[in-house]
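Homework help board

Subject: predicted structure for assignment chain

Our instructor gave us this sequence and asked us to write out the predicted structure in token form, then describe one feature. I got the tokens but I'm not sure how to describe them. Can anyone check?
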Amino acid sequence: MTYKITKKSALKILAAGKRFDSRGMFENRNIEVKFGVSNKAEGSVMVKMGNTQVACGIKMGVSTPYTDHENEGTMMTSMELLPLASPNFEYGQPSIESVESARIIDRGIRESGFIDFKKLCIKEGEKVWSIFVDIAVINDDGNLIDAGSLAALLALLTARKPVYDEKTEKISFGEFTDDALPLNKDKMPVTMTFFKVDDHMLVDPTREEEDVCDGRLTVEISKPGKEEIINAMQKGGEATFSVEEVENIVNEGTKIFKKLNSLIETEVEKFEKEGKKKSKK
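My token output:
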């Protein structure tokens, strides 16, 4: 028999400063990372956050730049909520949830200056590199925005450009160079979403916890200098957030940022070491 969390039961345990899985209010679930899940993508990764599982692939192409940014490359982010991930997801046009999640992830990356788009310019006004960040939800057990954002960052950090012949203007997909994307790693944005249930705040909810929440506030933080800065914020749901609550979210967010930033650095370092081992063989 499956026990379903109700808002009443959630409030009872939250009032005691606890959660159903014994985590702290601002404690993330265990995170697992697996790189190279696609040999066709320029960069790919699978991220498990508890039982939430997402895959992200980076594809690159050459296109005409936007007329108001003729010397800059472009980026497009999408999130697909696969029906196999949840009975709540259906085939067809992208849902509001998938579009909003993709936009939040995209905004954090774009506003932080993490990608140096000018270095993606091949010929001003004519040819630029385009980056496609494709996120697919494999299993939904809550907190898809944070899981998707983490996967996107890891995929971008480990992506390599495909072989491009400037004379023929053709890309040899499946053939990769050693060139990484032009990233400002000190500006890397980490996404954290805080969920509110009445007056209680928590992070990284399971699907059952998220279903009883009244609202959420996503903050995207980076540390380009001595102190962390907020690159973007996005509110969802009907709940309101007081000034004091937002200040607390920012304070807790900086703590979580440090932990997730360390995890990202560790995982990328492992990936790079493994790559060097393979190249020596």
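Reply (TA_rk): Your tokens look well-formed. For the description, you could write something like this. The radius of gyration is 20 Å. That's the kind of observation they're looking for.
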